[in-house]
Amino acid sequence: MTLTASHPAPTPATTAANANAQVASSSSFSAGMKVLPKPERTAMYAVYGFCRIVDDIADEEGPPVAERQAALEAWRGHIHALYAGGDLGPAHMLAPHVARYDLLEADFQAVIDGMEMDFVGLKGPDMATLDLYCDRAASAVGRLSVRVFGMDEEPGRELAYNLGRALQLTNILRDIDEDAAMGRLYLPDELLTTAGITSRDPQAVAADPRLGAVCDKLAAQADDYYAKASAVLAGRPRGHLAPSRLMAAAYGGVLAGLRRRGWTAPRAKVRVNKPALLWRMARETLFG
Known about the structure:
By secondary structure, the chain is mainly alpha-helical. It has two domains: 1-120, no CATH class; 121-288, Farnesyl Diphosphate Synthase (Orthogonal Bundle), CATH 1.10.600. Helix content is 72%, strand content 0%. It has 14 helices and no strands. The chain has helices at residues 12-24, 27-34, 38-59, 65-84, 95-101, 105-120, 127-148, 153-174, 176-181, 189-194, 202-207, 211-234, 242-261, 274-287. Helix 2 packs antiparallel against helix 13 (242-261), helix 3 runs antiparallel to helix 7 (127-148) and helix 8 packs parallel to helix 13 (242-261). It starts with 11 loop residues before the first helix and ends with a helix.
């Protein structure tokens, strides 16, 4: 979705409708949010709607980079206006939740920065750049989420840091072929070099038989982040913890499925185990 003359900026009503449609098609997110009380659930749907809009801007292949960058700049302005008292535009859907849960402008802006990194193009970033991308694309969303969940600052930020990175690395490992088709390569330069892969062409890397060594090491990093997130949750800090537990279980299951499938092309798609996720959701609902 772009915010141009040919693709008008969505109204709050159409944005909410888009968010609900996206939630309905995203089983893991939907399951995670259904265990929340209605005010928190509504806030999370609004945050998710914002994330989907800026993600769609980054992923839309038709418009030129300059046009998509202008669309993201427009959203930067909308978010800034939300905090500066200006014309909110489509960011109106976020206003009551920003006020109620003290959501930070920097986190919304970081999400936009992450989407910009997407369409500008990452092709074998170094580890520091990959970590920055994970922070912007995922952990920033986590920082918004833990405020809605009512967590205290220190455990909330620690959970967002670790679980966000775990989820994003899982996504990267799951979407190697899809990203390569879009000209993107998120696997880090250091691991590619160590494996003897010199090309940074996404399609060539995706077909390289040495890719498994890279994926194994990145999966081990994701394991470490999942373990640290689990340690935070095991401490039972204040707040609604069930959504984070469900997301960790869902994506941890995807990572396990990727390992079972293997990394060699051609790679079958690995998806969330819906029956297992629904069972976990029922347990979280009943027992917390």
